[in-house]
């Protein structure tokens, strides 16, 4: 989940919220919301995010998409979490053509020489 401090930007304007799905080394999918996908993924990767992901790496960010308000993000997160793993994978596949979402894959392997 996310912190309440993410809900409002410093200038008191609502922030853009994102839904993301992370895949563990064993293929499990974790769904969450945040205002900063890169920061949140890094937290998860370092074991400082959700307990469900600790020790389950390497982690791969499979999907991230802008959702809108915090309320909209919470509703979509709840709907995705109710899906089976297979249904989540099909949902991710259907999202790819959308201009409002993108798939980001971050490799945890060091860059070559």
Properties at a glance:
single chain, disordered C terminus, 28% helix, 3 helices, 4 strands, 113 residues, alpha+beta, four-stranded antiparallel sheet, GIY-YIG endonuclease
What can you tell me about this protein's structure?
By secondary structure, this protein is of the alpha+beta class. It has one domain (4-102): 3-Layer(aba) Sandwich (GIY-YIG endonuclease), CATH 3.40.1440. It is built from three helices and four strands, in the order E-E-H-E-H-H-E. It has helices at 37-45, 70-81, 85-95; strands at 17-23, 29-34, 60-68, 101-102. The chain has a four-stranded antiparallel beta sheet, sandwiched between helices. Strand 1 and strand 2 (29-34) form a beta hairpin. The longest helix is centred in the C-terminal third of the chain and has 12 residues, at 70-81.
Would you identify the regions where 5 or more consecutive residues have pLDDT less than 50?
98-113
The best one-word shape is globular
Query: What does the average pLDDT come to?
Result: 79
Largest sheet: 4 strands, antiparallel
N-to-C series of helices and strands: EEHEHHE
Count of helical segments? 3
Record the strand order, biggest sheet.
2-1-3-4
The CATH architecture assignment turns out to be 3-Layer(aba) Sandwich
Q: How would you describe the oligomerization state of the chains in this entry?
A: single chain
- Which radius of gyration do the C-alpha atoms yield? 14 Å
């Amino acid at each position: 989940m996310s912190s309440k401090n993410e809900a409002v930007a410093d200038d008191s304007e609502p922030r853009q919220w994102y839904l993301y799905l992370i895949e563990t080394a064993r293929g499990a999918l974790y769904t969450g919301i945040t205002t900063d996908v890169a920061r949140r993924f890094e937290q998860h990767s370092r074991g400082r995010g959700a307990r469900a992901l600790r020790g389950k790496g390497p982690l791969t960010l499979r999907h991230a998409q802008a959702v809108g308000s915090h309320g909209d993000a919470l509703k979509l997160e709840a709907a995705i979490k109710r899906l089976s793993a297979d249904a989540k994978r099909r949902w991710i596949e259907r999202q790819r053509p959308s201009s409002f979402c993108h798939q980001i894959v971050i490799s945890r392997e060091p860059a070559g020489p």
